[in-house]
Amino acid sequence: MELRHLRYFVTVAEELHFSRAAARLNIGQPPLSMQIRALEDELGVTLFERSQRRVFLTTAGRTFLVRARQILADADAARQEVQQIAGVDAGELRIAFTTSAPMTNLMKRVLTSYRQQYPRVTLTLSESPSERQLDALGERTLDIGLLRRADDATAVAGLSFETLVDEALVVVMHQGHTLAGRASISMADLAGEAFIMHPPDVGTAVDGKIRKMCERAGFTPRVVQEARESTTIVALAASGLGVAVLPAAVRCIQIEGARFMALTEADAHTPLLLAKRRDDASPLVQAFVAMCHEVAGVQAKTGDALTRAATPPDR
């Protein structure tokens, strides 16, 4: 039994509604229901009576709720005490992220959890191209970088990198496109298409990988439009101006006419990396990295991560 199981249980008990509880916890309803079932199985009791309309606490559930709240309160008091001792209860943490990172479930959940656990820490967030983040880390004007790099370009003196999530790449096109009826698509199928990409000065590693994939498929992408923001690129592709290849997190962009399709290439994925200085012993940085590990672990267990093995569904 983990503390997160108790938090999940208490939230459902307070809401008596799985959808509202999932929204409060910033997780999906199916993973939440699965975790509550796992908790009941571990305890060997039924905590909730479920009907089509209502959710009720059982007698065992009401008793367990009192204990769970006390355990969480004790854990929170202990956390605050050790944070004060370790120096992570206040300060500033400077984080930069590449354009698609905020669309990932992982980043959204990490930021929510970090703010909840360290409310006195000031998070200074900025959007920045991956290469500029590396410079800022080296100049010590940045503490954490959330970025994407080429598969063979993760060695930088003084910096450490780790993969938080390995995200699938998807093709974005207008839903009326002649290729839009397929379940998936290969890069070779896009040889005659007009492409929408980021301008070169944005410094995104994704576009570099896309160009290499196109070259391997026997063509050079014909770029008809450039845009700095992924949201703009999706909107232009949805209007029929061309096709785009982006990290699967862009599926959260709700734009009429957009069709998202899986790529068949085995290397059609892009890792979201966490970069920091190797010699950075800041408790604030260490706490953020630990939070990333925790959230990434939960997503891996519940299957709630966009990995390269996942086939992104169409909207």
UniProtKB/TrEMBL annotation:
<dbReference type="InterPro" id="IPR036388">
    <property type="entry name" value="WH-like_DNA-bd_sf"/>
</dbReference>
<comment type="similarity">
    <text>Belongs to the LysR transcriptional regulatory family.</text>
</comment>
<dbReference type="GO" id="GO:0003700">
    <property type="term" value="F:DNA-binding transcription factor activity"/>
</dbReference>
<keyword id="KW-0804">Transcription</keyword>
<keyword id="KW-0805">Transcription regulation</keyword>
<dbReference type="GO" id="GO:0003677">
    <property type="term" value="F:DNA binding"/>
</dbReference>
<protein>
    <submittedName>
        <fullName>HTH-type transcriptional regulator BenM</fullName>
    </submittedName>
</protein>
<dbReference type="InterPro" id="IPR036390">
    <property type="entry name" value="WH_DNA-bd_sf"/>
</dbReference>
<dbReference type="InterPro" id="IPR000847">
    <property type="entry name" value="LysR_HTH_N"/>
</dbReference>
<dbReference type="GO" id="GO:0032993">
    <property type="term" value="C:protein-DNA complex"/>
</dbReference>
<dbReference type="InterPro" id="IPR005119">
    <property type="entry name" value="LysR_subst-bd"/>
</dbReference>
<dbReference type="Pfam" id="PF00126">
    <property type="entry name" value="HTH_1"/>
</dbReference>
<dbReference type="Pfam" id="PF03466">
    <property type="entry name" value="LysR_substrate"/>
</dbReference>
<keyword id="KW-0238">DNA-binding</keyword>
<feature type="domain" description="HTH lysR-type">
    <location>
        <begin position="1"/>
        <end position="58"/>
    </location>
</feature>
